[in-house]
Amino acid sequence: MRLVVLGGGESGIGTAILGKKKGYDVFISDGGTIKNNYKEVLALNKLSFEEGLHTEDLILNADVVMKSPGIPEKSDIVKKILKKGIPIISEIEFANQFNDVETIGITGSNGKTTTTMLTHHLLKQGGLNMGLAGNIGKSFAWQVAEHKVEGYVLELSSFQLDGVVKYAPHIAVITNISPDHLDRYDYKYENYIAAKFRITMNQTEDDYLVYDADDEAISNWLGENKVKAKLIPFSLSGKTKKGVYVKDDTIISNIKKVKFTMPINELSLEGKHNVKNAMAAISVAQLKNIRKKTIMESLSNFQGVEHRLEKVLKIQNVEYVNDSKATNTNSTYYALDSMTGPTVWIVGGVDKGNDYNELMPLVREKVKAIICLGVDNAKIINAFNNVVDVMVETTSMAEAVKAAQKLSEKGDTVLLSPACASFDLFESYEDRGKQFKAAVQNL
């Protein structure tokens, strides 16, 4: 069996290693450049690859193709593979056929990394030996090839779910759905929503779907489509008394007839969105029979996720907050919503079809100055020109942070929450966040 792997990143390398171990004839093809550390792994494992091009003769003879999530369906080579009738699957689908332990799959437009890491933390503290993979850390395929665990907590993007055929998590979580990546879904929101719900399409009556009952897109979809899995809702608004809900500033869970309560102010993570992330994690922990005391302790000592509302430093009584992971307006909405004082907001990058109107009330209420950080800031300037008094354009992180320091005073917060992808000026949102932290430390 010939396995062709498109893309020599984390998921591609993991798939290649697992494929070779399972007896496939493996070839990796990357249209760009493969990082040196991955090339070393390929050499060590005696895997053949190419970079900077796609040689059709070496690709179109595949029995199966694993496409990395970053490669769009519209790319020429993908079209040619599909035309030949060769199946294209995701790394999750490929690895899952060799995985014999259960998985917990977590998706959503925002909060999925925090929810995934928090869920993993709860289960680990509860004594379960769980792998952590998907859109995070070492790839699922790599771990299936190299490790033995009791189960996996997987963070799954819509791109990863697009390539799923038979994969079904035992517990699926959908944190929320808001418009994102619409450029990959023909600018149709319903296509993106359908991609997220692929997480439950192969689930059975013995499986669970945990979801935000307050989320309009989720509620509408569930109203129009049948799901086999048992439904476990969570709600901040008191819409449901099933699953997990909030009453009198206390989280209450009735899952599996074991009542769990925890005051919101005892959570280590701040902000309404993090209450929801905690409710999703509690749902999973209770389904996995983790002790109540362990759940409470884990929720109060969890450290949070880098680049997600991460407090960097306080300088001259100005708080600097790194929220570089906010790559869409919905994510930035949560960040602005959790600001308590006047805010200097650093925003901008590669716009993925953003509608800034939803941020207007929060910007009017909380933002005293906007610093644009991107190659093209026209859309941001047009949106907020009449809303804030001060707008500055910058093209480097050091320049943006210096401008923020000049514009901020005692009691303010400087918030990097770009609402955009990072690829115009940075390698990734991680690179953007690290540059922000370095620039703040240099002040």
Instruction: Kindly report how far apart the N and C termini lie.
Output: 57 Å
Helix content: 25-40%
CATH architecture of the largest domain: 3-Layer(aba) Sandwich
* Beta strands, count: 20
Q: Tell me the major beta sheet.
A: 9 strands, mixed
Note poorly predicted spans.
Answer: none
Number of domains: 3
Strand order, main sheet: write it out: 7-8-6-9-10-11-12-13-14
By helix and strand content, what is the structural category?
alpha/beta
* Total count of helical runs of at least 4 residues: 17
Subcellular location: Cytoplasm
Catalytic activity: UDP-N-acetyl-alpha-D-muramoyl-L-alanine + D-glutamate + ATP = UDP-N-acetyl-alpha-D-muramoyl-L-alanyl-D-glutamate + ADP + phosphate + H(+)
Organism: Flavobacterium subsaxonicum WB 4.1-42 = DSM 21790
Function: Cell wall formation. Catalyzes the addition of glutamate to the nucleotide precursor UDP-N-acetylmuramoyl-L-alanine (UMA).
Explain the overall architecture.
This protein is of the alpha/beta class and 443 residues long. It has 3 domains: 2-89, NAD(P)-binding Rossmann-like Domain (Rossmann fold), CATH 3.40.50; 95-301, Mur-like, catalytic domain (UDP-N-acetylmuramoyl-L-alanine:D-glutamate ligase); 310-441, Protein-Tyrosine Phosphatase, Chain A. The protein is 35% helix and 22% strand. It contains 17 helices and 20 strands. It has a 9-stranded mixed β-sheet, with helices on one face. Strands 15-16-20-17-18-19 form a 6-stranded mixed β-sheet, sandwiched between helices. A 5-stranded parallel β-sheet has the order 3-2-1-4-5. Helix 6 packs across helix 12 (292-301). The longest helix has 16 residues, at 272-287. One of its GO terms (molecular function) is ATP binding. InterPro entries: Mur-like_cat_sf, Mur_ligase_C, Mur_ligase_C_dom_sf, Mur_ligase_cen, MurD. It is found in: Cytoplasm. Residues 307-420 form the Mur ligase C-terminal domain.
